[in-house]
Request: fold
Amino acid sequence: MNSLNSAMRNIPSASNLPGRRAQSGAILIFCLVFLLILTTMGVASMESTVLEERMAGNMQDHTATFQAAESSLQAAESWLVSENIWPTTSADGSTTVWTLDAMDPDSADAMHWWEDSDRQAEAWWADNAEAVAGVDGLASLPRYIVEELANINAGQSLAIGTGVQNRVRVFHRITARGFGTSDNAVVNLQSTYVKAYE
Reply:
């Protein structure tokens, strides 16, 4: 036992090691600052990722909305192609073809009817426009309105002397409205479609 005690006395303690200095804790402060920097970088990259994800979602919603409006525009043009007889116009849309600017409540305000704030609500479009069925995954069905802009039955000089009767060419304005996966995304498209009727 004496030999064990003498051997233990010969082992230097941590405070008696050669070259040992008192620790000041500088490495601890450095590690904490470094950890703070890494945490800040991680939070910033997460915020950037969330923002990019929102942007991608909005872009996808806008694309779906635009495609819905395009399908509505094509449905209206297909309906006009299928009509063999010149469609009757009405001021209330009951014949599917509206009289020019019949929806405009104030023609003196220099705004088109589709720019009027009362015509922006989904309920107005649901009550007055034709719905396009078969488009899934949207907040509301795409819709369209057809207006008769003008009709022309003169000026077809190529038919003079041939015995061919002049055919009436009717100009239609189609206003299509598409909704996205949420009611926040709305796209309006317009086209002018010309068809000759007997």
